[in-house]
Protein backbone atom coordinates (compact mmCIF):
# COMPACT_ATOMS: atom_id res chain seq x y z
CA UNK A 1 0.00 0.00 0.00
CA UNK A 2 1.22 3.48 -0.81
CA UNK A 3 1.62 5.69 2.19
CA UNK A 4 0.10 9.14 2.24
CA UNK A 5 2.65 11.97 2.26
CA UNK A 6 3.77 12.93 5.72
CA UNK A 7 2.67 16.44 6.74
CA UNK A 8 5.53 18.94 6.85
CA UNK A 9 6.38 21.22 9.74
CA UNK A 10 6.34 24.94 9.01
CA UNK A 11 7.61 27.96 10.91
CA UNK A 12 4.79 30.39 11.63
CA UNK A 13 7.21 33.33 11.59
CA UNK A 14 9.10 32.97 8.30
CA UNK A 15 7.51 29.97 6.52
CA UNK A 16 10.57 27.68 6.71
CA UNK A 17 9.62 23.99 6.26
CA UNK A 18 11.24 20.82 7.58
CA UNK A 19 10.41 17.13 7.55
CA UNK A 20 10.50 16.74 11.33
CA UNK A 21 9.71 18.90 14.30
CA UNK A 22 12.46 21.05 15.80
CA UNK A 23 12.32 23.46 18.67
CA UNK A 24 14.12 26.25 16.86
CA UNK A 25 13.56 27.49 13.32
CA UNK A 26 16.55 26.93 11.09
CA UNK A 27 15.89 30.10 9.08
CA UNK A 28 14.83 32.89 11.48
CA UNK A 29 16.16 31.17 14.66
CA UNK A 30 12.84 31.69 16.49
CA UNK A 31 12.05 29.30 19.37
CA UNK A 32 8.74 27.41 19.51
CA UNK A 33 7.51 28.69 16.13
CA UNK A 34 7.62 25.34 14.23
CA UNK A 35 4.24 23.62 14.02
CA UNK A 36 2.78 20.78 12.00
CA UNK A 37 1.02 21.79 8.79
CA UNK A 38 -1.37 19.43 7.06
CA UNK A 39 -0.71 18.74 3.41
CA UNK A 40 -3.22 20.66 1.24
CA UNK A 41 -5.52 18.81 -1.10
CA UNK A 42 -5.53 20.46 -4.52
CA UNK A 43 -8.67 20.05 -6.62
CA UNK A 44 -8.63 22.49 -9.53
CA UNK A 45 -11.83 22.68 -11.54
CA UNK A 46 -12.99 24.96 -14.33
CA UNK A 47 -14.67 28.18 -13.19
CA UNK A 48 -16.47 31.02 -14.94
CA UNK A 49 -14.24 33.85 -16.16
CA UNK A 50 -14.62 37.42 -14.94
CA UNK A 51 -14.03 38.91 -18.41
CA UNK A 52 -13.66 37.32 -21.83
CA UNK A 53 -10.22 37.33 -23.42
CA UNK A 54 -9.78 39.89 -26.20
CA UNK A 55 -6.95 40.70 -28.63
CA UNK A 56 -4.32 42.79 -26.91
CA UNK A 57 -4.77 45.58 -29.43
CA UNK A 58 -8.34 46.06 -28.24
CA UNK A 59 -7.40 46.54 -24.60
CA UNK A 60 -7.92 50.15 -23.50
CA UNK A 61 -5.07 51.95 -21.73
CA UNK A 62 -7.07 55.01 -20.72
CA UNK A 63 -7.65 53.65 -17.22
CA UNK A 64 -3.95 53.02 -16.60
CA UNK A 65 -2.40 56.38 -17.39
CA UNK A 66 -0.02 58.03 -14.94
CA UNK A 67 -1.50 60.48 -12.45
CA UNK A 68 0.74 62.87 -10.54
CA UNK A 69 1.13 62.16 -6.84
CA UNK A 70 1.77 65.85 -6.12
CA UNK A 71 5.35 65.05 -5.06
CA UNK A 72 7.65 65.56 -8.08
CA UNK A 73 10.55 63.51 -6.74
CA UNK A 74 8.28 60.52 -6.10
CA UNK A 75 6.83 60.85 -9.61
CA UNK A 76 10.42 60.77 -10.92
CA UNK A 77 11.06 57.44 -9.21
CA UNK A 78 7.73 55.92 -10.22
CA UNK A 79 8.31 56.78 -13.87
CA UNK A 80 5.67 59.50 -14.18
CA UNK A 81 3.29 59.18 -11.25
CA UNK A 82 0.71 56.85 -9.76
CA UNK A 83 -0.98 54.26 -11.95
CA UNK A 84 -4.61 53.31 -11.15
CA UNK A 85 -4.78 49.75 -9.84
CA UNK A 86 -1.05 49.60 -9.05
CA UNK A 87 0.22 48.03 -5.83
CA UNK A 88 3.25 49.84 -4.39
CA UNK A 89 5.36 48.55 -1.51
CA UNK A 90 7.37 51.18 0.41
CA UNK A 91 9.94 49.82 2.88
CA UNK A 92 12.44 51.53 5.13
CA UNK A 93 14.01 51.59 8.56
CA UNK A 94 12.00 52.75 11.59
CA UNK A 95 11.90 56.52 11.92
CA UNK A 96 13.16 57.26 8.42
CA UNK A 97 9.96 59.12 7.49
CA UNK A 98 7.77 56.63 5.60
CA UNK A 99 4.53 57.72 7.27
CA UNK A 100 5.37 61.41 6.79
CA UNK A 101 6.05 60.89 3.09
CA UNK A 102 2.85 58.93 2.47
CA UNK A 103 0.75 61.40 4.45
CA UNK A 104 2.11 64.14 2.18
CA UNK A 105 1.28 62.05 -0.90
CA UNK A 106 -2.24 61.41 0.44
CA UNK A 107 -2.77 65.12 1.15
CA UNK A 108 -1.52 66.19 -2.28
CA UNK A 109 -3.76 63.61 -3.96
CA UNK A 110 -6.76 64.88 -1.96
CA UNK A 111 -6.02 68.45 -3.08
CA UNK A 112 -6.52 67.31 -6.68
CA UNK A 113 -10.07 66.24 -5.70
CA UNK A 114 -9.16 62.55 -5.65
CA UNK A 115 -10.62 60.82 -2.61
CA UNK A 116 -7.93 59.21 -0.47
CA UNK A 117 -8.14 56.69 2.35
CA UNK A 118 -5.28 56.50 4.85
CA UNK A 119 -5.43 53.37 7.04
CA UNK A 120 -3.06 53.31 10.00
CA UNK A 121 -2.45 50.28 12.17
CA UNK A 122 0.53 51.64 14.07
CA UNK A 123 -0.89 54.92 15.39
CA UNK A 124 -4.20 56.26 16.56
CA UNK A 125 -6.24 58.57 14.37
CA UNK A 126 -5.51 61.53 16.66
CA UNK A 127 -1.75 60.97 16.37
CA UNK A 128 -1.94 61.04 12.58
CA UNK A 129 -4.11 64.16 12.77
CA UNK A 130 -1.44 65.91 14.85
CA UNK A 131 1.14 65.16 12.16
CA UNK A 132 -1.23 66.34 9.44
CA UNK A 133 -1.76 69.64 11.30
CA UNK A 134 2.00 70.13 11.57
CA UNK A 135 2.67 69.38 7.91
CA UNK A 136 -0.44 71.05 6.46
CA UNK A 137 -2.05 67.81 5.32
CA UNK A 138 -5.67 68.34 6.43
CA UNK A 139 -8.18 68.14 3.56
CA UNK A 140 -11.82 67.19 3.21
CA UNK A 141 -11.09 64.50 0.60
CA UNK A 142 -8.54 62.78 2.87
CA UNK A 143 -10.21 60.09 4.97
CA UNK A 144 -8.47 58.53 7.96
CA UNK A 145 -9.13 55.19 9.66
CA UNK A 146 -7.26 53.39 12.44
CA UNK A 147 -7.82 49.66 11.91
CA UNK A 148 -5.89 46.43 12.41
CA UNK A 149 -8.48 43.98 11.05
CA UNK A 150 -8.53 43.15 7.34
CA UNK A 151 -12.32 42.84 7.23
CA UNK A 152 -12.72 46.32 8.69
CA UNK A 153 -10.26 47.74 6.16
CA UNK A 154 -12.21 46.20 3.28
CA UNK A 155 -15.42 47.68 4.69
CA UNK A 156 -13.83 51.14 4.79
CA UNK A 157 -12.82 50.72 1.16
CA UNK A 158 -16.41 49.84 0.22
CA UNK A 159 -17.79 52.87 2.01
CA UNK A 160 -15.20 55.51 1.02
CA UNK A 161 -14.42 54.25 -2.51
CA UNK A 162 -11.04 55.96 -2.65
CA UNK A 163 -8.78 56.65 -5.61
CA UNK A 164 -5.67 56.18 -3.45
CA UNK A 165 -5.34 53.75 -0.55
CA UNK A 166 -2.45 53.95 1.94
CA UNK A 167 -1.96 51.07 4.40
CA UNK A 168 0.53 51.76 7.21
CA UNK A 169 1.65 49.06 7.69
CA UNK A 170 0.93 45.58 6.38
CA UNK A 171 2.62 43.92 9.37
CA UNK A 172 -0.03 45.38 11.69
CA UNK A 173 -3.08 44.20 9.73
CA UNK A 174 -4.48 40.75 10.57
CA UNK A 175 -7.11 38.57 8.92
CA UNK A 176 -9.57 36.74 11.14
CA UNK A 177 -9.78 33.02 10.58
CA UNK A 178 -6.18 32.78 9.38
CA UNK A 179 -3.58 31.12 11.59
CA UNK A 180 -0.65 33.11 12.88
CA UNK A 181 -0.20 36.53 14.39
CA UNK A 182 -0.25 39.78 12.36
CA UNK A 183 3.09 40.16 10.64
CA UNK A 184 3.59 36.42 10.22
CA UNK A 185 4.09 34.79 6.86
CA UNK A 186 0.56 33.44 6.49
CA UNK A 187 -1.05 36.67 7.63
CA UNK A 188 1.07 38.89 5.40
CA UNK A 189 0.30 36.71 2.37
CA UNK A 190 -3.44 36.80 2.98
CA UNK A 191 -3.61 40.54 3.72
CA UNK A 192 -1.46 41.40 0.69
CA UNK A 193 -3.51 39.16 -1.60
CA UNK A 194 -6.79 40.72 -0.42
CA UNK A 195 -5.57 44.32 -0.79
CA UNK A 196 -4.07 43.71 -4.23
CA UNK A 197 -7.24 41.94 -5.39
CA UNK A 198 -9.32 44.97 -4.39
CA UNK A 199 -6.82 47.33 -6.01
CA UNK A 200 -6.96 45.52 -9.35
CA UNK A 201 -10.73 45.09 -9.47
CA UNK A 202 -11.56 48.69 -8.44
CA UNK A 203 -8.60 50.51 -10.05
CA UNK A 204 -7.40 51.82 -6.68
CA UNK A 205 -3.77 52.82 -6.38
CA UNK A 206 -2.60 51.06 -3.22
CA UNK A 207 0.54 51.98 -1.29
CA UNK A 208 1.59 49.48 1.36
CA UNK A 209 4.18 50.24 4.03
CA UNK A 210 6.51 47.34 4.88
CA UNK A 211 8.96 46.85 7.71
CA UNK A 212 12.60 45.86 7.25
CA UNK A 213 14.81 43.45 9.14
CA UNK A 214 18.03 44.38 10.91
CA UNK A 215 20.07 43.65 7.76
CA UNK A 216 17.95 46.08 5.69
CA UNK A 217 15.88 43.56 3.70
CA UNK A 218 12.07 43.71 3.58
CA UNK A 219 10.49 41.74 6.39
CA UNK A 220 8.04 38.96 5.63
CA UNK A 221 7.83 36.46 2.79
CA UNK A 222 9.70 37.09 -0.43
CA UNK A 223 6.47 36.54 -2.34
CA UNK A 224 5.31 39.96 -1.13
CA UNK A 225 7.86 41.65 -3.41
CA UNK A 226 6.73 39.50 -6.33
CA UNK A 227 3.00 40.19 -6.15
CA UNK A 228 3.28 44.00 -5.96
CA UNK A 229 3.98 46.16 -9.02
CA UNK A 230 6.51 48.55 -7.50
CA UNK A 231 9.00 48.11 -4.66
CA UNK A 232 10.45 51.33 -3.21
CA UNK A 233 13.12 51.60 -0.54
CA UNK A 234 13.21 54.72 1.65
CA UNK A 235 16.62 55.32 3.17
CA UNK A 236 18.58 58.00 4.99
CA UNK A 237 20.96 58.69 7.84
CA UNK A 238 19.38 59.42 11.22
CA UNK A 239 21.86 62.25 11.76
CA UNK A 240 20.92 63.94 8.49
CA UNK A 241 17.71 65.42 7.13
CA UNK A 242 18.44 64.09 3.66
CA UNK A 243 16.34 61.13 2.49
CA UNK A 244 16.30 59.14 -0.75
CA UNK A 245 13.73 56.85 -2.36
CA UNK A 246 15.06 54.11 -4.64
CA UNK A 247 13.05 51.90 -6.97
CA UNK A 248 14.03 48.25 -6.52
CA UNK A 249 11.27 47.00 -8.84
CA UNK A 250 9.01 48.96 -11.18
CA UNK A 251 6.66 47.51 -13.79
CA UNK A 252 5.77 50.98 -15.08
CA UNK A 253 9.15 52.72 -15.31
CA UNK A 254 12.90 52.53 -14.76
CA UNK A 255 14.54 51.01 -11.70
CA UNK A 256 17.64 53.22 -11.76
CA UNK A 257 16.02 56.43 -10.53
CA UNK A 258 16.23 58.03 -7.09
CA UNK A 259 14.17 60.73 -5.45
CA UNK A 260 15.66 63.17 -2.93
CA UNK A 261 13.79 64.66 0.04
CA UNK A 262 14.41 66.92 3.01
CA UNK A 263 12.77 65.73 6.24
CA UNK A 264 12.16 68.39 8.88
CA UNK A 265 9.72 69.18 11.69
CA UNK A 266 7.45 70.94 9.18
CA UNK A 267 7.18 67.83 7.02
CA UNK A 268 8.96 66.44 4.01
CA UNK A 269 9.83 68.44 0.90
CA UNK A 270 11.31 67.44 -2.45
CA UNK A 271 14.94 68.37 -3.15
CA UNK A 272 15.30 68.87 -6.89
CA UNK A 273 19.01 69.88 -6.71
CA UNK A 274 20.66 67.92 -3.87
CA UNK A 275 24.28 68.37 -4.99
CA UNK A 276 24.92 71.36 -2.76
CA UNK A 277 24.22 69.25 0.34
CA UNK A 278 27.31 67.10 -0.21
CA UNK A 279 29.92 69.74 -1.16
CA UNK A 280 31.54 71.91 1.50
CA UNK A 281 32.48 75.44 0.51
CA UNK A 282 35.93 76.14 2.00
CA UNK A 283 37.26 79.71 2.28
CA UNK A 284 40.76 78.47 1.37
CA UNK A 285 42.30 75.38 -0.17
CA UNK A 286 42.37 72.62 2.45
CA UNK A 287 44.58 69.51 2.17
CA UNK A 288 42.80 66.17 2.21
CA UNK A 289 39.71 67.06 0.17
CA UNK A 290 38.50 66.21 -3.33
CA UNK A 291 35.13 66.33 -5.07
CA UNK A 292 33.79 63.18 -6.74
CA UNK A 293 30.96 62.91 -9.27
CA UNK A 294 28.79 59.87 -8.71
CA UNK A 295 25.60 58.64 -10.36
CA UNK A 296 22.51 57.98 -8.26
CA UNK A 297 20.37 56.21 -10.81
CA UNK A 298 20.40 58.52 -13.82
CA UNK A 299 21.10 61.64 -11.74
CA UNK A 300 24.70 62.90 -11.31
CA UNK A 301 25.57 64.05 -7.80
CA UNK A 302 28.71 65.80 -6.59
CA UNK A 303 30.04 64.75 -3.20
CA UNK A 304 33.15 65.86 -1.35
CA UNK A 305 35.54 63.23 -0.01
CA UNK A 306 37.68 64.17 2.99
CA UNK A 307 40.72 62.33 4.34
CA UNK A 308 42.92 62.68 7.41
CA UNK A 309 46.31 60.92 7.71
CA UNK A 310 48.10 61.01 11.06
CA UNK A 311 51.13 59.11 12.44
CA UNK A 312 50.37 56.33 14.90
CA UNK A 313 52.53 54.52 17.46
CA UNK A 314 50.33 51.43 17.20
CA UNK A 315 51.41 48.31 15.36
CA UNK A 316 47.97 48.14 13.72
CA UNK A 317 47.07 51.50 12.14
CA UNK A 318 43.40 52.43 12.10
CA UNK A 319 41.42 52.50 8.87
CA UNK A 320 38.13 54.30 9.54
CA UNK A 321 35.55 55.14 6.87
CA UNK A 322 32.24 57.00 6.93
CA UNK A 323 30.01 57.01 3.87
CA UNK A 324 32.55 55.02 1.83
CA UNK A 325 33.04 51.33 1.10
CA UNK A 326 35.74 50.20 3.52
CA UNK A 327 36.99 47.43 1.22
CA UNK A 328 37.48 49.84 -1.70
CA UNK A 329 39.25 52.35 0.52
CA UNK A 330 41.60 49.58 1.70
CA UNK A 331 42.30 48.70 -1.94
CA UNK A 332 43.04 52.36 -2.78
CA UNK A 333 45.48 52.55 0.16
CA UNK A 334 47.31 49.47 -1.08
CA UNK A 335 47.54 50.91 -4.62
CA UNK A 336 48.88 54.24 -3.33
CA UNK A 337 51.57 52.50 -1.34
CA UNK A 338 52.54 50.00 -4.03
CA UNK A 339 52.45 52.14 -7.19
CA UNK A 340 52.75 55.74 -5.97
CA UNK A 341 55.34 55.38 -3.22
CA UNK A 342 53.05 56.88 -0.54
CA UNK A 343 53.88 55.07 2.71
CA UNK A 344 50.82 54.59 4.85
CA UNK A 345 51.75 51.52 6.91
CA UNK A 346 52.58 53.62 9.99
CA UNK A 347 49.69 56.10 9.72
CA UNK A 348 46.07 56.15 10.78
CA UNK A 349 43.80 56.94 7.83
CA UNK A 350 40.33 58.43 8.27
CA UNK A 351 38.09 58.96 5.22
CA UNK A 352 34.61 60.44 5.15
CA UNK A 353 32.02 62.13 2.96
CA UNK A 354 30.22 65.43 3.55
CA UNK A 355 26.53 65.67 4.41
CA UNK A 356 25.94 61.97 4.98
CA UNK A 357 26.43 60.98 1.33
CA UNK A 358 27.18 57.31 0.65
CA UNK A 359 29.59 56.58 -2.19
CA UNK A 360 29.70 52.93 -3.23
CA UNK A 361 30.31 53.46 -6.94
CA UNK A 362 33.84 52.56 -8.20
CA UNK A 363 33.96 55.91 -10.03
CA UNK A 364 34.76 57.59 -6.70
CA UNK A 365 38.10 55.73 -6.37
CA UNK A 366 40.13 58.52 -7.96
CA UNK A 367 38.67 61.19 -5.67
CA UNK A 368 39.42 59.02 -2.62
CA UNK A 369 43.01 58.49 -3.78
CA UNK A 370 43.54 62.22 -4.40
CA UNK A 371 42.11 63.13 -0.99
CA UNK A 372 44.37 60.62 0.79
CA UNK A 373 47.45 61.72 -1.17
CA UNK A 374 46.67 65.36 -0.43
CA UNK A 375 46.29 64.66 3.28
CA UNK A 376 49.57 62.71 3.34
CA UNK A 377 51.66 65.34 1.53
CA UNK A 378 49.90 68.37 2.98
CA UNK A 379 49.42 69.80 -0.52
CA UNK A 380 45.81 70.87 -1.21
CA UNK A 381 44.16 70.04 -4.51
CA UNK A 382 43.54 73.07 -6.76
CA UNK A 383 40.22 74.82 -6.29
CA UNK A 384 37.52 73.93 -8.79
CA UNK A 385 38.77 70.40 -9.59
CA UNK A 386 36.62 67.27 -9.71
CA UNK A 387 37.88 63.71 -10.21
CA UNK A 388 36.14 60.59 -11.43
CA UNK A 389 37.52 57.19 -12.36
CA UNK A 390 37.85 53.60 -11.22
CA UNK A 391 41.32 52.46 -10.17
CA UNK A 392 42.54 48.98 -11.11
CA UNK A 393 44.95 46.91 -9.03
CA UNK A 394 47.74 47.70 -11.50
CA UNK A 395 47.18 51.43 -10.95
CA UNK A 396 45.40 52.06 -14.25
CA UNK A 397 42.31 54.24 -14.50
CA UNK A 398 39.21 52.70 -16.02
CA UNK A 399 36.42 54.51 -17.80
CA UNK A 400 33.16 55.23 -16.03
CA UNK A 401 29.64 55.33 -17.44
CA UNK A 402 27.71 58.51 -18.24
CA UNK A 403 30.84 60.65 -18.34
CA UNK A 404 29.24 63.53 -20.36
CA UNK A 405 26.41 63.85 -17.83
CA UNK A 406 28.89 63.96 -14.94
CA UNK A 407 31.00 66.64 -16.62
CA UNK A 408 27.95 68.73 -17.48
CA UNK A 409 26.72 68.63 -13.87
CA UNK A 410 30.15 69.66 -12.53
CA UNK A 411 30.33 72.52 -15.05
CA UNK A 412 26.85 73.69 -14.06
CA UNK A 413 27.98 74.02 -10.45
CA UNK A 414 31.00 76.13 -11.33
CA UNK A 415 33.88 73.64 -11.44
CA UNK A 416 36.56 74.40 -14.03
CA UNK A 417 38.72 71.24 -14.30
CA UNK A 418 37.82 67.54 -14.44
CA UNK A 419 40.34 64.70 -14.17
CA UNK A 420 39.05 61.61 -15.94
CA UNK A 421 40.48 58.34 -17.33
CA UNK A 422 41.77 58.53 -20.89
CA UNK A 423 39.88 57.12 -23.84
CA UNK A 424 40.80 53.52 -24.73
CA UNK A 425 43.45 53.37 -27.46
CA UNK A 426 44.56 56.99 -27.11
CA UNK A 427 48.33 57.02 -26.61
CA UNK A 428 49.48 59.92 -28.80
CA UNK A 429 51.69 61.77 -26.28
CA UNK A 430 53.23 61.27 -22.87
CA UNK A 431 51.39 64.28 -21.46
CA UNK A 432 47.75 64.22 -20.32
CA UNK A 433 45.34 65.06 -23.11
CA UNK A 434 43.00 68.00 -22.49
CA UNK A 435 39.92 69.43 -24.18
CA UNK A 436 37.03 71.72 -23.27
CA UNK A 437 33.52 70.38 -22.69
CA UNK A 438 30.61 72.53 -21.52
CA UNK A 439 33.08 75.34 -20.79
CA UNK A 440 35.11 73.01 -18.56
CA UNK A 441 38.68 71.83 -19.07
CA UNK A 442 38.90 68.03 -19.07
CA UNK A 443 42.21 66.24 -18.43
CA UNK A 444 42.43 62.54 -19.22
CA UNK A 445 45.15 60.52 -17.52
CA UNK A 446 46.12 56.87 -17.98
CA UNK A 447 46.85 55.87 -14.38
CA UNK A 448 46.86 57.00 -10.77
CA UNK A 449 50.55 58.00 -10.86
CA UNK A 450 49.92 60.43 -13.72
CA UNK A 451 46.92 61.91 -11.91
CA UNK A 452 48.87 62.52 -8.69
CA UNK A 453 51.86 63.86 -10.63
CA UNK A 454 49.55 66.30 -12.39
CA UNK A 455 48.47 67.62 -8.98
CA UNK A 456 52.08 67.62 -7.63
CA UNK A 457 51.41 64.90 -5.09
CA UNK A 458 54.21 62.57 -6.27
CA UNK A 459 57.82 62.96 -7.22
CA UNK A 460 58.58 63.92 -10.78
CA UNK A 461 60.74 60.84 -11.29
CA UNK A 462 57.98 58.48 -10.17
CA UNK A 463 57.32 56.31 -13.28
CA UNK A 464 53.79 55.82 -14.58
CA UNK A 465 52.38 52.98 -16.60
CA UNK A 466 52.71 55.04 -19.78
CA UNK A 467 56.38 55.90 -19.04
CA UNK A 468 57.23 52.21 -18.78
CA UNK A 469 55.96 51.44 -22.31
Automatic annotation (TrEMBL):
Region annotation Lon-protease-like: where it falls in the sequence: 348-469
Domain of life according to the entry: Bacteria
Binding sites annotated in the UniProt record for ATP: 92-99
Keywords recorded for this protein, A-Z: ATP-binding, DNA damage, DNA repair, DNA-binding, Hydrolase, Metal-binding, Nucleotide-binding, Stress response, Zinc, Zinc-finger
InterPro entries given in the database record: AAA+_ATPase, DNA_repair_RadA, P-loop_NTPase, RecA_ATP-bd, Ribosomal_Su5_D2-typ_SF, Ribsml_uS5_D2-typ_fold_subgr, Rubredoxin_2
Cited function: Plays a role in repairing double-strand DNA breaks, probably involving stabilizing or processing branched DNA or blocked replication forks. DNA-dependent ATPase involved in processing of recombination intermediates, plays a role in repairing DNA breaks. Stimulates the branch migration of RecA-mediated strand transfer reactions, allowing the 3' invading strand to extend heteroduplex DNA faster. Binds ssDNA in the presence of ADP but not other nucleotides, has ATPase activity that is stimulated by ssDNA and various branched DNA structures, but inhibited by SSB. Does not have RecA's homology-searching function.
Similarity field: Belongs to the RecA family. RadA subfamily.
UniProt-recorded name of the protein: DNA repair protein RadA
Species this protein is from: Nocardioides ginsengisegetis
Amino acid sequence: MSKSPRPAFRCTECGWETGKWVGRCGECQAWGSVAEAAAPVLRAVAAPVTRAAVPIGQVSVEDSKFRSSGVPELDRVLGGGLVPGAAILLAGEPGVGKSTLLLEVAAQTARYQHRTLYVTGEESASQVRLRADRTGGVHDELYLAAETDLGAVLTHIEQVRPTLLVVDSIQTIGASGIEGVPGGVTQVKEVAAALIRVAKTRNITTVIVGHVTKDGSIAGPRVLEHVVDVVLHFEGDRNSRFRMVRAMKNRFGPVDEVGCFDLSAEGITAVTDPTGLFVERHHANVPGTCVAVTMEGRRPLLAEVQALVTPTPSDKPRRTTSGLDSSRVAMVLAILQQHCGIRLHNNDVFTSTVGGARLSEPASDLAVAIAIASATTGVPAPRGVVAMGEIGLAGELRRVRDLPQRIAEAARLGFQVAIVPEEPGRRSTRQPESWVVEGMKVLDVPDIVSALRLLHFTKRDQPSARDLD
